[in-house]
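Translate structure to sequence.
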Protein backbone atom coordinates (compact mmCIF):
# COMPACT_ATOMS: atom_id res chain seq x y z
CA UNK A 1 0.00 0.00 0.00
CA UNK A 2 1.23 3.47 -0.81
CA UNK A 3 2.14 5.45 2.28
CA UNK A 4 -0.11 8.35 1.47
CA UNK A 5 -3.22 6.16 1.24
CA UNK A 6 -5.57 6.83 4.13
CA UNK A 7 -8.52 4.67 3.19
CA UNK A 8 -9.09 1.75 0.89
CA UNK A 9 -12.60 0.37 0.55
CA UNK A 10 -12.87 -3.03 -1.10
CA UNK A 11 -16.01 -4.71 -2.40
CA UNK A 12 -18.16 -3.08 0.25
CA UNK A 13 -21.82 -4.19 0.23
CA UNK A 14 -24.72 -3.47 2.57
CA UNK A 15 -28.29 -4.73 2.52
CA UNK A 16 -31.28 -4.03 4.75
CA UNK A 17 -34.09 -6.42 5.61
CA UNK A 18 -37.60 -5.15 4.88
CA UNK A 19 -41.01 -6.79 4.67
CA UNK A 20 -40.96 -6.54 0.90
CA UNK A 21 -37.48 -8.08 0.58
CA UNK A 22 -33.84 -7.17 1.07
CA UNK A 23 -32.72 -3.70 -0.06
CA UNK A 24 -29.27 -3.81 -1.67
CA UNK A 25 -28.34 -0.27 -0.66
CA UNK A 26 -24.60 -0.55 -1.38
CA UNK A 27 -23.27 -3.08 -3.85
CA UNK A 28 -19.63 -4.00 -4.37
CA UNK A 29 -18.21 -0.51 -3.85
CA UNK A 30 -14.42 -0.06 -4.03
CA UNK A 31 -12.32 3.10 -3.94
CA UNK A 32 -9.21 4.58 -2.40
CA UNK A 33 -8.59 7.88 -0.71
CA UNK A 34 -5.24 9.56 -0.22
CA UNK A 35 -4.40 11.65 2.83
CA UNK A 36 -5.63 15.20 2.37
CA UNK A 37 -7.85 14.33 -0.59
CA UNK A 38 -11.54 15.10 -0.98
CA UNK A 39 -13.75 12.56 -2.69
CA UNK A 40 -17.18 13.88 -3.60
CA UNK A 41 -19.99 11.35 -3.96
CA UNK A 42 -22.93 12.35 -6.13
CA UNK A 43 -26.04 10.61 -7.40
CA UNK A 44 -29.82 10.80 -7.25
CA UNK A 45 -31.81 10.45 -4.06
CA UNK A 46 -31.89 6.86 -2.78
CA UNK A 47 -28.79 5.68 -4.64
CA UNK A 48 -27.04 4.69 -1.39
CA UNK A 49 -24.80 7.66 -0.56
CA UNK A 50 -25.79 7.89 3.12
CA UNK A 51 -25.81 4.11 3.49
CA UNK A 52 -22.24 4.02 2.22
CA UNK A 53 -21.05 6.79 4.57
CA UNK A 54 -22.83 5.41 7.62
CA UNK A 55 -21.50 1.99 6.70
CA UNK A 56 -17.92 3.29 6.67
CA UNK A 57 -18.30 4.51 10.25
CA UNK A 58 -20.25 1.34 11.07
CA UNK A 59 -23.47 2.91 12.25
CA UNK A 60 -26.03 0.50 10.88
CA UNK A 61 -29.80 0.58 11.31
CA UNK A 62 -31.45 -2.23 13.24
CA UNK A 63 -32.69 -3.96 10.12
CA UNK A 64 -29.19 -4.41 8.69
CA UNK A 65 -28.99 -7.77 6.91
CA UNK A 66 -25.60 -8.01 5.24
CA UNK A 67 -22.30 -6.16 5.51
CA UNK A 68 -19.44 -7.41 3.38
CA UNK A 69 -16.06 -6.24 2.15
CA UNK A 70 -13.10 -4.42 3.65
CA UNK A 71 -12.61 -0.91 5.02
CA UNK A 72 -8.86 -0.53 5.27
CA UNK A 73 -7.89 2.53 7.27
CA UNK A 74 -4.14 3.16 7.32
CA UNK A 75 -3.47 -0.47 6.53
CA UNK A 76 -5.91 -2.02 9.04
CA UNK A 77 -9.23 -3.59 8.07
CA UNK A 78 -11.52 -1.78 10.51
CA UNK A 79 -14.62 -3.64 9.29
CA UNK A 80 -13.26 -6.85 10.79
CA UNK A 81 -12.67 -5.27 14.24
CA UNK A 82 -15.11 -6.12 17.02
CA UNK A 83 -17.53 -3.30 17.86
CA UNK A 84 -15.78 -2.34 21.11
CA UNK A 85 -12.37 -1.94 19.47
CA UNK A 86 -13.93 0.00 16.59
CA UNK A 87 -15.71 2.30 19.05
CA UNK A 88 -12.59 2.84 21.18
CA UNK A 89 -10.04 3.19 18.43
CA UNK A 90 -11.72 4.24 15.21
CA UNK A 91 -15.17 5.87 15.37
CA UNK A 92 -14.82 9.61 16.17
CA UNK A 93 -11.11 9.20 16.95
CA UNK A 94 -9.97 8.35 13.41
CA UNK A 95 -13.11 9.13 11.41
CA UNK A 96 -16.06 11.36 12.20
CA UNK A 97 -19.27 12.13 10.43
CA UNK A 98 -21.59 15.07 9.93
CA UNK A 99 -24.92 13.35 9.41
CA UNK A 100 -27.49 14.33 6.82
CA UNK A 101 -29.91 16.76 8.48
CA UNK A 102 -27.87 16.80 11.73
CA UNK A 103 -28.42 20.51 12.31
CA UNK A 104 -32.12 19.79 12.73
CA UNK A 105 -31.51 17.22 15.42
CA UNK A 106 -29.58 19.40 17.84
CA UNK A 107 -31.10 19.08 21.29
CA UNK A 108 -33.27 22.19 21.80
CA UNK A 109 -32.86 22.25 25.59
CA UNK A 110 -29.08 21.97 25.78
CA UNK A 111 -26.63 24.81 25.25
CA UNK A 112 -24.49 24.61 22.14
CA UNK A 113 -21.21 24.35 24.05
CA UNK A 114 -22.50 21.33 25.97
CA UNK A 115 -23.58 19.55 22.80
CA UNK A 116 -20.20 20.09 21.20
CA UNK A 117 -18.36 18.98 24.35
CA UNK A 118 -20.54 15.89 24.79
CA UNK A 119 -18.78 13.55 22.33
CA UNK A 120 -15.51 14.07 24.23
CA UNK A 121 -17.13 13.34 27.59
CA UNK A 122 -19.10 10.36 26.30
CA UNK A 123 -16.59 8.70 24.00
CA UNK A 124 -13.33 9.61 25.69
CA UNK A 125 -14.30 10.16 29.32
CA UNK A 126 -12.82 13.69 29.20
CA UNK A 127 -13.71 15.75 32.29
CA UNK A 128 -16.30 18.49 31.88
CA UNK A 129 -14.00 21.46 32.28
CA UNK A 130 -11.46 20.24 29.71
CA UNK A 131 -14.23 19.20 27.29
CA UNK A 132 -15.95 22.60 27.57
CA UNK A 133 -12.74 24.49 26.99
CA UNK A 134 -11.92 22.33 23.94
CA UNK A 135 -15.52 22.80 22.69
CA UNK A 136 -15.08 26.58 22.86
CA UNK A 137 -11.83 26.30 20.93
CA UNK A 138 -13.42 24.22 18.17
CA UNK A 139 -16.49 26.46 18.06
CA UNK A 140 -14.26 29.47 17.60
CA UNK A 141 -12.38 27.63 14.83
CA UNK A 142 -15.66 27.09 12.94
CA UNK A 143 -16.63 30.74 13.44
CA UNK A 144 -18.92 30.59 16.49
CA UNK A 145 -17.93 33.15 19.12
CA UNK A 146 -17.97 32.34 22.83
CA UNK A 147 -21.16 34.35 23.41
CA UNK A 148 -23.01 32.14 20.91
CA UNK A 149 -21.53 29.03 22.49
CA UNK A 150 -23.64 29.74 25.56
CA UNK A 151 -26.88 29.90 23.55
CA UNK A 152 -29.49 27.31 22.65
CA UNK A 153 -29.87 25.93 19.10
CA UNK A 154 -33.11 27.84 18.43
CA UNK A 155 -31.18 31.08 18.90
CA UNK A 156 -28.88 30.27 15.97
CA UNK A 157 -29.34 30.60 12.21
CA UNK A 158 -29.22 27.56 9.91
CA UNK A 159 -25.65 28.32 8.90
CA UNK A 160 -24.56 28.63 12.54
CA UNK A 161 -26.24 25.35 13.44
CA UNK A 162 -24.39 23.70 10.57
CA UNK A 163 -21.14 25.12 11.97
CA UNK A 164 -22.05 23.64 15.36
CA UNK A 165 -22.54 20.12 13.96
CA UNK A 166 -19.24 20.42 12.09
CA UNK A 167 -17.61 21.38 15.42
CA UNK A 168 -19.18 18.29 17.05
CA UNK A 169 -17.58 16.09 14.41
CA UNK A 170 -14.20 17.78 14.78
CA UNK A 171 -13.85 17.93 18.54
CA UNK A 172 -12.36 14.44 18.70
CA UNK A 173 -9.68 15.45 16.22
CA UNK A 174 -10.33 12.89 13.45
CA UNK A 175 -8.27 12.44 10.28
CA UNK A 176 -11.18 11.55 8.04
CA UNK A 177 -14.45 13.47 7.97
CA UNK A 178 -17.57 12.09 6.30
CA UNK A 179 -19.83 14.98 5.32
CA UNK A 180 -23.33 13.91 4.32
CA UNK A 181 -25.09 16.79 2.55
CA UNK A 182 -23.52 19.44 4.82
CA UNK A 183 -24.98 22.33 2.83
CA UNK A 184 -28.46 21.14 1.89
CA UNK A 185 -31.37 23.19 3.22
CA UNK A 186 -29.17 26.30 3.38
CA UNK A 187 -29.52 29.36 1.17
CA UNK A 188 -26.88 29.94 -1.50
CA UNK A 189 -24.83 32.52 0.41
CA UNK A 190 -24.78 30.36 3.53
CA UNK A 191 -23.82 27.32 1.43
CA UNK A 192 -20.91 29.29 0.06
CA UNK A 193 -19.83 30.28 3.59
CA UNK A 194 -19.94 26.66 4.74
CA UNK A 195 -17.94 25.56 1.68
CA UNK A 196 -15.32 28.19 2.52
CA UNK A 197 -15.25 26.97 6.11
CA UNK A 198 -14.75 23.37 4.95
CA UNK A 199 -11.88 24.48 2.69
CA UNK A 200 -10.24 26.37 5.52
CA UNK A 201 -10.64 23.47 8.00
CA UNK A 202 -9.25 20.98 5.52
CA UNK A 203 -6.10 23.04 5.18
CA UNK A 204 -5.71 23.99 8.85
CA UNK A 205 -6.38 20.53 10.24
CA UNK A 206 -4.96 18.46 7.41
CA UNK A 207 -8.27 16.66 6.96
CA UNK A 208 -9.39 14.13 4.40
CA UNK A 209 -13.02 14.41 3.31
CA UNK A 210 -15.72 12.26 1.83
CA UNK A 211 -18.23 14.87 0.74
CA UNK A 212 -21.72 13.74 -0.22
CA UNK A 213 -23.96 16.13 -2.07
CA UNK A 214 -26.95 16.46 -4.35
CA UNK A 215 -25.54 19.72 -5.56
CA UNK A 216 -22.99 18.94 -8.24
CA UNK A 217 -22.19 22.61 -8.79
CA UNK A 218 -20.68 22.73 -5.30
CA UNK A 219 -18.31 19.83 -5.78
CA UNK A 220 -15.84 21.52 -8.10
CA UNK A 221 -14.85 23.89 -5.29
CA UNK A 222 -13.78 21.23 -2.83
CA UNK A 223 -13.38 17.89 -4.57
CA UNK A 224 -10.20 16.37 -5.93
CA UNK A 225 -12.05 13.32 -7.19
CA UNK A 226 -15.65 12.45 -7.98
CA UNK A 227 -17.55 9.22 -7.51
CA UNK A 228 -20.93 8.84 -9.18
CA UNK A 229 -23.33 6.40 -7.55
CA UNK A 230 -26.28 4.79 -9.26
CA UNK A 231 -28.60 2.23 -7.64
CA UNK A 232 -26.13 1.29 -4.89
CA UNK A 233 -23.04 1.11 -7.10
CA UNK A 234 -20.20 3.42 -8.03
CA UNK A 235 -20.50 3.68 -11.81
CA UNK A 236 -17.73 6.20 -12.46
CA UNK A 237 -14.82 7.56 -10.48
CA UNK A 238 -12.51 10.24 -11.81
CA UNK A 239 -10.39 13.27 -11.05
CA UNK A 240 -12.72 16.26 -10.77
CA UNK A 241 -11.54 17.86 -14.05
CA UNK A 242 -12.36 14.68 -16.00
CA UNK A 243 -15.79 14.52 -14.45
CA UNK A 244 -16.65 17.77 -16.20
CA UNK A 245 -14.50 17.40 -19.31
CA UNK A 246 -14.80 13.74 -20.13
CA UNK A 247 -17.73 12.05 -18.36
CA UNK A 248 -17.60 8.45 -19.59
CA UNK A 249 -20.68 6.70 -18.20
CA UNK A 250 -24.00 7.54 -19.84
CA UNK A 251 -25.51 8.21 -16.42
CA UNK A 252 -22.78 10.72 -15.53
CA UNK A 253 -23.36 12.54 -18.81
CA UNK A 254 -27.10 12.74 -18.24
CA UNK A 255 -26.58 13.77 -14.62
CA UNK A 256 -24.36 16.63 -15.74
CA UNK A 257 -26.92 17.68 -18.35
CA UNK A 258 -29.64 17.69 -15.69
CA UNK A 259 -28.06 20.07 -13.20
CA UNK A 260 -27.00 23.68 -13.40
CA UNK A 261 -23.24 24.04 -13.09
CA UNK A 262 -21.30 27.16 -12.38
CA UNK A 263 -19.19 26.70 -15.48
CA UNK A 264 -21.64 26.89 -18.34
CA UNK A 265 -25.00 28.18 -19.38
CA UNK A 266 -27.12 25.42 -20.88
CA UNK A 267 -30.63 24.05 -21.24
CA UNK A 268 -31.28 21.53 -18.50
CA UNK A 269 -32.48 18.09 -19.53
CA UNK A 270 -34.02 15.62 -17.14
CA UNK A 271 -32.95 12.00 -16.95
CA UNK A 272 -35.72 9.75 -18.34
CA UNK A 273 -37.50 7.40 -15.91
CA UNK A 274 -36.77 7.11 -12.21
CA UNK A 275 -34.24 5.22 -10.08
CA UNK A 276 -35.01 1.50 -9.72
CA UNK A 277 -36.07 -0.31 -6.58
CA UNK A 278 -33.05 -1.71 -4.77
CA UNK A 279 -35.04 -4.73 -3.64
CA UNK A 280 -34.84 -6.24 -7.09
CA UNK A 281 -32.37 -4.07 -9.01
CA UNK A 282 -32.13 -4.39 -12.80
CA UNK A 283 -29.83 -7.07 -14.20
CA UNK A 284 -26.63 -6.23 -16.07
CA UNK A 285 -25.94 -2.51 -16.02
CA UNK A 286 -28.39 -1.23 -13.41
CA UNK A 287 -28.92 1.88 -15.51
CA UNK A 288 -30.07 -0.02 -18.63
CA UNK A 289 -33.85 0.54 -18.23
CA UNK A 290 -33.23 4.32 -18.39
CA UNK A 291 -30.29 4.40 -20.76
CA UNK A 292 -31.02 5.75 -24.24
CA UNK A 293 -27.95 3.92 -25.57
CA UNK A 294 -28.52 0.51 -23.93
CA UNK A 295 -27.43 -2.53 -25.95
CA UNK A 296 -28.36 -6.20 -25.55
CA UNK A 297 -25.30 -6.99 -23.44
CA UNK A 298 -26.18 -4.17 -21.01
CA UNK A 299 -29.33 -6.03 -19.99
CA UNK A 300 -27.62 -9.29 -19.10
CA UNK A 301 -24.04 -8.71 -18.02
CA UNK A 302 -22.68 -6.29 -15.41
CA UNK A 303 -20.12 -4.09 -17.13
CA UNK A 304 -16.58 -4.09 -15.72
CA UNK A 305 -14.73 -0.91 -14.87
CA UNK A 306 -13.04 0.39 -18.01
CA UNK A 307 -9.92 2.46 -17.44
CA UNK A 308 -10.35 5.78 -19.21
CA UNK A 309 -7.02 7.11 -17.97
CA UNK A 310 -4.99 7.03 -14.77
CA UNK A 311 -7.44 7.34 -11.87
CA UNK A 312 -10.51 7.49 -14.14
CA UNK A 313 -12.76 4.42 -14.43
CA UNK A 314 -16.27 4.00 -15.80
CA UNK A 315 -18.54 1.00 -15.74
CA UNK A 316 -20.16 1.40 -19.16
CA UNK A 317 -19.72 -0.83 -22.23
CA UNK A 318 -19.43 2.18 -24.52
CA UNK A 319 -15.83 2.54 -23.30
CA UNK A 320 -14.81 -0.89 -24.57
CA UNK A 321 -11.85 -0.80 -26.94
CA UNK A 322 -11.50 2.98 -26.70
N1 LIG B 1 -33.00 1.31 7.34
C1 LIG B 1 -33.39 1.10 6.08
N2 LIG B 1 -34.20 0.06 5.78
C2 LIG B 1 -34.59 -0.20 4.52
N3 LIG B 1 -34.22 0.54 3.47
C3 LIG B 1 -33.41 1.58 3.68
C4 LIG B 1 -32.96 1.92 5.00
N4 LIG B 1 -32.17 3.04 4.90
C5 LIG B 1 -32.13 3.35 3.59
N5 LIG B 1 -32.87 2.48 2.87
C6 LIG B 1 -33.03 2.44 1.40
O1 LIG B 1 -31.72 2.24 0.87
C7 LIG B 1 -31.55 2.99 -0.32
C8 LIG B 1 -30.37 3.91 -0.16
O2 LIG B 1 -30.72 4.92 0.79
P1 LIG B 1 -29.75 6.08 1.22
O3 LIG B 1 -30.38 6.84 2.31
O4 LIG B 1 -28.41 5.49 1.49
O5 LIG B 1 -29.69 6.94 -0.13
P2 LIG B 1 -29.10 8.40 -0.38
O6 LIG B 1 -28.34 8.31 -1.67
O7 LIG B 1 -28.38 8.89 0.81
O8 LIG B 1 -30.43 9.26 -0.64
P3 LIG B 1 -30.67 10.85 -0.36
O9 LIG B 1 -29.95 11.56 -1.45
O10 LIG B 1 -32.14 10.99 -0.48
O11 LIG B 1 -30.14 11.17 0.99
C9 LIG B 1 -32.87 3.68 -0.59
O12 LIG B 1 -33.60 2.85 -1.46
C10 LIG B 1 -33.51 3.74 0.78
O13 LIG B 1 -34.92 3.74 0.67
S1 LIG C 1 -23.43 -0.07 -19.94
FE1 LIG C 1 -25.05 0.05 -21.47
S2 LIG C 1 -26.92 0.54 -20.32
FE2 LIG C 1 -25.17 0.96 -19.01
S3 LIG C 1 -24.79 3.11 -19.29
FE3 LIG C 1 -23.44 2.03 -20.71
S4 LIG C 1 -24.62 1.89 -22.63
FE4 LIG C 1 -26.07 2.46 -21.02
MG1 LIG D 1 -28.65 10.50 2.03
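Result:
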Amino acid sequence: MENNNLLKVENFSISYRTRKGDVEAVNDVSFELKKGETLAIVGESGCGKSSLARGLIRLFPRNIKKVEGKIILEGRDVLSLDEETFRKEVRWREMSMVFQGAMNSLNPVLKVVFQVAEPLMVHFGTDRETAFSRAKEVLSLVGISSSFAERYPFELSGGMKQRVVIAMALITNPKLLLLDEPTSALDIITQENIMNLLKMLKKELNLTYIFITHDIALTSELADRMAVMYAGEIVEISPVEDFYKNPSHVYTKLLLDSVPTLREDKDLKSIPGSPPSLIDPPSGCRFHPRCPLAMDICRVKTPPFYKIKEGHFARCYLNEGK
